[in-house]
Amino acid sequence: MGASYQPLDPHNQKPSSKKPLSFLSKPVCAWLACGFISLALLHLLCCSPAGTQRTAFSPLLQYINNTYSFVSSVPPRGDESCNYSEGRWVWSPGYARRYNATECNVKESHDCLRNGRPDTGYLDWRWQPAGGCSLPAFDARAFLTAMRGKHIAFIGDSMARNQAQSLVCLLSAAFPNRLLYRDADPRKYNFWRYAFPTHDVKVSFYWNPFIVKATGKSEDESIRENHVHLDTPGDGWGADADTIDVAVLGASHWLLNGAIYYNGSEVIGAHNAPAELNYTGVGYAWPLKMAYRTAVERLSSSRPRTVVLATFSPAHFEGRPSDSPTACTKMEPYEEGEKELDWICKELRDIVYDEAQAAKVRIAGASATRIEVLDVTKMAAMRPDGHPSVYMHRDPFAHGVPERMYSDCLHSCLPGPVDTFNEMLLQILRKRR
Ligand SMILES: *[C@@H]1O[C@H](CO)[C@@H](O)[C@H](O)[C@H]1NC(C)=O
Ligand SMILES: *[C@@H]1O[C@H](CO)[C@@H](O)[C@H](O)[C@H]1NC(C)=O
Ligand SMILES: *[C@@H]1O[C@H](CO)[C@@H](O)[C@H](O)[C@H]1NC(C)=O
Ligand SMILES: *[C@@H]1O[C@H](CO)[C@@H](O)[C@H](O)[C@H]1NC(C)=O
Ligand SMILES: *[C@@H]1O[C@H](CO)[C@@H](O)[C@H](O)[C@H]1NC(C)=O
């Protein structure tokens, strides 16, 4: 079992193995590899008569350019037969220190380092897929090259947002970004889009925690109920659907909590609604399927497009109250066998596989839309240490240790385990059809 945080004395932490952010290392290696060329170039620049510099310079620069692009734009492609969804986390010091989240404007409650989380061991793990294959480290150039000219939209709940922000950070660490728009309220991160002009790539997030159209609590937290229209795409992404080339859909948590479900104007049932309303109980599984179905139908078209269905990413409250400062305090991943997936995780994951399969059958021949599953359930389930916990607040123990304090045991710190979801996403998107 892992040790717990030592909130009483945040200075009394054993220093972690610090390693500088590693995203620079690949280009640096590439430049080192062509060091001899640079020396030659320097020689030319210093010692050639001025008139010959330009002509001598260009082919050489071209060559360096090509060498450089060759080295850096052909990163190891994942083994296409590799199933990344099963595996284990292996210790790999520094591997997950991929970016500085403050610089890519993530939601403050996920910026664990900025918020003062003292232990950084959660950034020392790499996902090792079962079966001997490997999951290559995220490569921003490979991602942008594969997605050149495309619009990638994450649609779903706050876990989908977590992954979308991770992607923006991973890309921004290597390439310039431009914020195209975001919510008017600066505390919200519900609708935004970034452009990566070097490759004409856009990344958007659409807050649709039921995927489909919802009113009530998801729009206004002071309202108790969710009213969910299973037959209608969510407002924002529904309107933009024709501009989306890659849609990553992720929702489950709000369906587990419950809602009143509609088809057209007719109530067809509810989950977790007050009994006196006499609604037919429909559980969470069937509405989840219907939501994915409506989305896939809206996104199916003759234009080649990819729809990625993400599986459930579980929380680690493990029955503890969420307002306890010790709700999730583990500092290491679970070991293999230490913790089995519970049946809800398995069921929710199976629903996504089943719905993806059903969608493939339904649209076969009729649409060029490609359906993929991003199965993150196991990798997420094994990482109780990767959540912000009390470091969802800035310097939570600055005024002593309060008895009650909310812990985030659901989302991932950024950087953190959710970055690995995007490493897997990259391999899925680079796969040949
Ligand atoms: C090097 O590559 C970049 C991007 O691929 C290109 O814009 C630039 O013109 C190239 N430089 C030379 C000298 O070929
Ligand atoms: C990958 O592994 C998961 C979990 O064991 C399984 O459900 C899925 O069918 C596998 N995928 C493929 C393409 O074999
Ligand atoms: C991240 O960047 C911010 C702003 O540039 C800087 O103040 C901070 O020290 C950096 N954090 C880390 C962990 O490097
Ligand atoms: C909604 O009603 C239509 C028309 O009756 C029906 O075809 C469709 O299957 C229903 N959808 C759901 C989610 O119940
Ligand atoms: C629910 O059913 C009970 C018993 O049939 C009935 O008395 C009550 O009025 C119903 N409530 C609503 C909101 O329809």
TrEMBL record:
Residues 135-427 form the Trichome birefringence-like C-terminal domain. Its main location: Golgi. Pfam families: PC-Esterase, PMR5N. It comes from the Eukaryota. It is a single-pass type II membrane protein. GO terms for molecular function: O-acetyltransferase activity; xylan O-acetyltransferase activity. It is found in: Golgi apparatus membrane. Keywords: Golgi apparatus, Membrane, Signal-anchor, Transferase, Transmembrane, Transmembrane helix. Residues 80-131 form the Trichome birefringence-like N-terminal domain. Coiled coil: none annotated. GO terms for cellular component: Golgi apparatus; Golgi membrane. Belongs to the PC-esterase family. TBL subfamily. PANTHER family: OS07G0255900 PROTEIN, PROTEIN TRICHOME BIREFRINGENCE-LIKE 9-RELATED. This is Uncharacterized protein. It comes from Setaria italica (Foxtail millet). The gene is LOC101777434.
